[in-house]
Amino acid sequence: MEHERASRLTQLRAIGEAGQEAEEQVMAAQKDTLERVLKEIEAALDRVRDGSYGTCPGCAKPIPVERLEILPYTQFCVPCQRKAG
Question: What pTM, to 2 d.p., does this model score?
Answer without folding.
Answer: 0.69
